[in-house]
Amino acid sequence: MFDYLAVLISVILGLALTHLLFGVSRLIQLRHGVRLYWVQLLWTFNVILYVLALWWGMFWWKHLQVWTVQEFFFLTFYTIIVFLLASILFPHECREGLDCEVHFFRNKNWFFGIQIAASLLDIPETLFKSYDGLRGVPREYYVFITALILIDAVGLRSSSRKIHAVLPILWLVLIIGYETATSIHRIVAA
């Protein structure tokens, strides 16, 4: 069953990556006719990391022997939410005259709202993997997911350019720190 689901997950997450990479490619091509915004570009990098980490993390489900329709729909819905997160960062039609800062702030509530939804969906996904005996929940996870949700909540509530300049940096440090800490934990435990 996982192979069947993995194809769907791969298509949805692949579309998320495609949208982000196409957006960056269009910005490069139109670099003289668009106003870049480094915060949006850093969020783009962060979401690419997030999509890749999620794609990697979905592999744990390979070991589940008995599947329910609820698990199938839940995991599919989770990846759809991540696709929507990626789709918010760039308009589907990047054209000359695009002001990336204006685009980002016009869509920031959707971006951070969807990012909160993705983080909230990550909690049961992580706990289900543990419940099904596929992977234990790292101790660091609870601090990590709480901090992610706090960063997203601040992004949702704030319109300050200074705060928004700090948030993607904090998010990047947090995800790199979490991935490093949990990797070291697995190496030490082995």
Short description, anyone?
The chain is mostly helical.
Description:
The protein is globular. By secondary structure, the protein is mainly α. It has one domain. The model has no long low-confidence stretch (mean pLDDT 90). The protein contains six helices and no strands. The two termini are 29 Å apart. The relative contact order is 0.13. It has helices at 2-29, 38-58, 69-88, 100-131, 140-157, 161-189.
Task: Provide the descriptors you would attach to this structure in a database record.
190 residues, mainly alpha, 0% strand, globular
Helix content: over 70%
Binned strand content: under 5%
The ordered string of helix (H) and strand (E) elements is HHHHHH
Task: Enumerate the spans where pLDDT stays under 50 for 5 or more consecutive residues.
Answer: none
Distance linking N and C termini: 29 Å
Number of helices: 6
For the biggest sheet, the summary is: none
| Structural class based on helices, strands and sheet pairing | mainly alpha
Number of strands: 0
Q: For the CA atoms, what is the radius of gyration?
A: 17 Å
Mean pLDDT: 90
Overall tally of structural domains: 1
